[in-house]
Amino acid sequence: MDFSKHSIRLVQRCPICNREYQMNRVQIIEEWGNSFLAYMTCTFCQSSIMVRVMSMPQGLVGSAILTELSPEEITKFSEQEGINANDVLRVYEVNQSSGLLKEIIKNNN
Ligand SMILES: [Zn+2]
Hints:
Layout: H1 2-7, E1 27-32, E2 35-41, E3 48-56, E4 59-67, H2 71-79, H3 85-98, H4 100-108
The structure holds zinc ion.
Zinc ion binds near residues 14, 16, 44 and 45.
């Protein structure tokens, strides 16, 4: 847990309001090997970010994105299987035979 506690200091300020994060509010969502995924919500503007940090031979590499997902939703989606080529083909076939996409577009107009 030391690794994540230290590394999370890479992100110190909220990208929206520029206030300092309260480090005791950081949630570690997943952690394995040399990488972890953390989640934090700004106590001032309530915007949330997801941070992925990896320890590489050349140092720590991190990326943060703003998210509207809750930590529970992030866990749920990260456990789901990705979409593969067969899924895409199946959707294509269903669309061809039922005109699903036309129906959706029609209902949105
Ligand atoms: Zn903020």
